[in-house]
Every structure is written in structure tokens, then in C-alpha cells.
Amino acid sequence: MDTLIIFGGFLVGLILLVKGADEMVKSAIQIAFKFKLPNSIIGATFIGFGTSAPELFASTGAAINGDLSLGIGNIIGSNIANSLLVLAVLYLFIDKSYQKKININQISPVWMMILTTIFVSTYILTNQFPFILGIVLLSLVVFVTYKMVTEEAVDEEELVTEERNFIWLRGVIAIATTIFGSTLVVDNAIAIAELFNISSLIVGVTIIAIGTSLPEVAGAISAARLKKPDLVMGNVFGSNLFNIGLVGGSAIIIEPGEIASNIDYQMFLMYFASFLAVLLTRYVIKRNIVLGVIFLLIYFGFIFSLF
Fold first, then answer.
1. Least packed by Cβ within 10 Å: which of 83, 136, 204, 212?
2. CA 142 – CA 226 distance, rounded (Å)
3. Which long-range contacts (CB under 8 A, 24 or more apart) does 136-139 make?
């Protein structure tokens, strides 16, 4: 009975976390339009933040509870899932008629790799996540956001959602729902780790990471079918960038130091998957079942290797 309550609480928390974050971003966009903020600012900040909002609340919630392993595991697992699962979806679901190179603004992918390199190399060299790393990551993501605001524009039609009433109330309720959902996720994730005697790092890398990455995967399927692979890749780069800089920086500032497990292998795979996503933008994008299946096998092979 206790096991059912724990898993039920985790599932409810995950749904509240993801749905609350989604509603929070939609309300924020409506408020931004109300105050006539430029589209570029809305796109680079609210949408970029939106892709990482579930990870942010889950990881910072874990850090506040003193469990940096869970927070770091969520970041690593989410970035691996964003890269490998989303790439798999792209190559499996892209329209058969689509066959060309895509044009991607290089700010997001370049800075994603820079922040990922700093994150990974600092851990490899020091075997910990020092406070200064959190400061550096958070400062860099603020700088990169400014760069995106000034150099990347988003068309208004990509942002406009249906007109909403009571947007301030919706926003407040969404924030409260997201916070409550993240609390349920973190508390029950720790309980699951204790129940099955596994590390909270593994829980973060697997079930939390997959859960918080489901919106990106669902969005990738829709964008691939609509022949919009640039949106798929842009989502990967933006989400991974904010996960490392905003989520990682915040969690490390809250709870810096060492984690219980050695994560060299997971770090290298995250770096490889991120680099692979950047590399593939240099080539023609077309449906490739074999490549899609290979990415799926790599991802699920990684998940099974953790146990």
C-alpha cells in the first residue's frame, strides 16, 4: 500500500509539475504581450525558460532538500533524453518528402557546448560541484539570454496563444501548482530511492528526467510531422542550455559540493549526445529509420546500464 501511495504521489506530482509549468509559461507570454514586450525577448526568455521549468523546479527542490545528487541526475538525464530521444523522434517521424539542411542560429548550440564543457570538465577535474561553478553557469546563461534577446527574433504567430481571461490569477495558480508538483516529485523520488535501495542520482537520471522531458519529445513529434526540424533542434539546444546554465547553476548555488556517486560515464554520454546534436545540424535532415532506432537503442542501453 505504501508503495502505491509513493508511486501515485510521484505520478501526480509529475503531472502537476509539467502542466503547471506549461500554464505558467503561457500566462507569462500573455502578460508579456499585454505589456508590449518585444517578440525576441519573449521568445528568448519565456520560451527558453519554459523548456526547462520542470527541471528547474525539480532540481532546485532537490537541492533545497539537501539532495544535490537528485538535482544533478535530473539535469544529466534530461539533457541526454533531450538529445537522444528527440533526435530519434526527428529521424523517425520527419515527413518522407523532407530532405534538406536546416538553418540554425549558432548562438544556442555554441553556448550550449561551452556551458556543457565547463560543467563536465569542472566535475571531472575536481570531482565536485563548487559554489563558483554555480555562479559562473548562472552568469553565463544570463549573458547568453541577453545575446539571444538582441540577435534572435521569434515570429509573433509562433507565440500567440488563445486569448485568456484572468491571466494574473492563472499565473499565480500555475506557479503554486508547479511548486507543489515539484515538492511531490522530489519527496516521492527520494522515497522511491530508499524503497528500492538505489541512489537518488539514478532516480533523477531516469524517471524524473524522462518525465520532465516528455513535453520536448511530444513537441518534437509534432514539429517533425509539420516539416519543422529547425524547431526540433532549436528546442534541444535551448533546453539543454537552460538546463545546464539556469537549472544547474541554481541547484549548485543552493547546495554546492560533492555527490555520493561517481558520474564520469554519465557526464561523457551527456557531452557526446549534445555534441552529436550539434554535428547533425551540419548534414541533410531526412527520414532515417536506422539512425532513429540507433539513438533509441543507445538511450535505453544507457538507462539499463544504470541498474
1. 136
2. 32
3. 136/249, 137/244, 137/245, 137/248, 137/249, 137/252, 138/245, 138/246, 138/249, 138/250, 138/253, 139/249
171-175: long-range pairs with CB below 8 Å, 24+? 171/24, 171/27, 171/28, 171/31, 173/23, 174/20, 174/21, 174/23, 174/24, 174/27, 175/20, 175/24
Q: How far apart are CA 126 and CA 128, in angstroms?
A: 5
How many whole angstroms separate alpha carbon 178 and alpha carbon 194?
A: 24
Judge contact between 85 and 213, C-beta under 8 A. Answer: yes
Reported pTM: 0.80
Q: Which of 257, 213, 269 is nearest to 236 (CA)?
A: 213
246 to 116, 183, 252, 259: CA distances (angstroms):
12, 19, 10, 19
| Predicted confidence band of residue 156 (pLDDT cuts 50, 70, 90) | very low
Q: What is the pLDDT of residue 162?
A: 57
Rounded Cα distance, 71 and 212, in Å: 12
DSSP letters along 170-210, please?
HHHHHHHHHHHHHHHHHHHHHHHHHHTT--HHHHIIIIIHH
**Nearest-5° Cα angle at 73, 70 to 79:** 140
Q: Give the position of cell 537549472.
A: 247
Q: Which domains does the chain show, CATH number per domain?
A: 2-305 (1.20.1420.30)
Beta carbons of 194 and 67 less than 8 angstroms apart: no
pLDDT one-digit tens code per residue, 41-70: 554 455 556 667 778 888 888 888 888 998
Interatomic CA distance for residues 260 and 202, integer angstroms: 11
